[in-house]
Amino acid sequence: MSQRELTFAEAINEALAEEMRRDARVFIVGEDVAEAGTPFKVLLGLVDEFGKNRVIDSPISEPGFSGIGVGAAMTGMHPVVDIMFGDFLTLAMDQIVNQAAKVHYMSGGKLKVPIVFRTTLGATRRSAAQHSQSLHAWLSHVPGLKVVVPSTPYDAKGLLKTAIRDENPVVFFEDKMMYKLKGAVPAEEYTIPFGVADVKRVGKDITLVATSSMVQVALGAADKLSQIGIDAEVIDPRTTKPLDKQALIDSVKKTSRAIACIMKNMRCQRNRMNRFSRRKHKDIL
Fold first, then answer.
1. 277 pLDDT exceeds 70?
2. Which residue among 131, 136, 141, 281 is the active-site one?
């Protein structure tokens, strides 16, 4: 495949544009998604190509436009509902948890809800307490939802295309601090299946499990560990629901030890990884 370098934001934008060209049932709805292109400018240009009937600016009412998206999905559309900040998912929990996630089962399999809730996680500058939470683990415990946490532009594009084509509700989390992250992305068509972890770095001494932006932290820690003779394997589950448990089990069987790199407190985790890397090799193995 021919490779280009795209930012994380460009990969998201390209995935949406390709899927909207491929399938007329796909549309975007949310706050400031049209001319503004979201506060992070991820969707810039889409309204120019697809118009305001398919890139729809909504009122400031997450329950309202999330409910519209669920209803549209139930009647055959493939909406992408843009929740500006992941914290605002709490405003639409009834629509996401009690409607989107359950309708298929409550209808005896007669109805499907092919909807994607695009949202953010993690802190950013001046975001404060109500705009910086990481709620992906919470949503991963809801039966009927699929949860995606990409860590690279390549994964972001391939996983988003899969999410839009899925016949089930998907919550797609993007770390706000990763939008300018660059990486190789094929020009050709591709998708990435859910429930398949990716080994970002092969190793034999310890397993580092990380998602989203913590994958980059884990890779940095693995590089530091290599300087003192410790060969770390870095695994990115890519989706927390479904979770590729077998890949994690296989890695830990090989290395016999593991660290989970959690996003809740990134500074704490970085400090912990740095302390780990300063240990002597003989103290660990």
1. no
2. 131
